[in-house]
Design goal:
The protein is an alpha/beta fold. 29% of the residues lie in helices and 25% in strands.
Length: 146
Amino acid sequence: MEVRRISPDEAKALLDSGNGHIYLDVRTVSEFEAGHPQGAKNIPFLEQDPLRGMSINPRFAEIVEKNFGKSANLICGCQKGGRSYRAAETLKAAGFQNVVDMRGGYGGETDQCGCTTFAGWAERGLPVTTESSREDRYEHLKSNAK
């Protein structure tokens, strides 16, 4: 199932359009707390598993569905663009209809040398914050899905 990719500037325009788009930050809680787009909702696609290290959050699609529904306009974003693309694929496969991936993520795509090849949200000077409401944090969103 093909996932449409958009730039951070396109994501910002969709969020500002008033059409109810939601920025779904699929990074870890600590990455989210270090900085994220204003109004972002945090549901990690990967979680730390004591036995396997980082692995896919087994409740990811379920938590997204119970909080936003399968018809929500979702923009998936991560740090560089890889996790969010996989998260968007997972949501599409689970029947979500309006999901896009934000290319470049929060910090931008980089090459093997660590040089930026596609600027992300923060590098483009788009609004960022370290603050979030209780309703935007993973702990709350996860508890809503019980």
